[in-house]
Amino acid sequence: MSSPEEPSSSHDAGETSEPHRAPEEAAAASTPANIRCRWKAVFKKMRKSLAVKGSQDSSSKGKDSNNLDSFNCDGEPPPTLEEIRCWGKSFDKLMRSSAGRKVFRDFLRCEYSEENILFWLACEELKKESNPDVVEEKARFIYEDYISILSPKEVSLDSRVREIVNKNMVAPTPHTFDEAQLQIYTLMHRDSYPRFINSALFKQLAQLGNNNGDGGASAGASGTATPTTAAQRKQSNA
User: Fold this and answer.
1) Is 0.70 surpassed by the pTM of this model?
2) Cβ distance 230 to 112 under 8 Å?
């Protein structure tokens, strides 16, 4: 008497789900080698969009500005070479520039801290709203995306600022996140900006040599070569 057919397994070949990455594999994603690979991809993308020439022999300002004609700046004129170099001297000027924010955001993505500038930009958009219903809706989205401890994009805030935000959320206004936004702005300025202005990406965009001081090397002295992880930032603010 033949035995009954065995039920088909959900783990047949072709249907096997991809196994979860081991902790060792996940850690490997943030190794210097992988970070360099991500940097190469970003650098290639930015060089293509900015069309910045590598040669230093052009003395015409018109030619310098034409190098940036293809940059998408959200309707703003493309930045000149002089403006790009100013980004290395002033974080405020970098953040006031649409093109500067785009380049800095790409840099933060490579450092796995893109949530900081995304939160800052969301707060800026919230300040433009005047409709109470829209303000409340956007404030809830911002809280869930960047403040909630359950969010994968949670930004690093100290307990004092977090308490202020929680109180403000009782009746949200366009300025509900002002304290938190300032703290994240300061974090980007002190933590990520020094590495940005000393990065190969920025020096290429600004057409600076490795020993040229125009890129704000003095400002980068306080930076470190190793990106600060979100876990490390949270632990330092605890």
Assistant:
1) no
2) yes
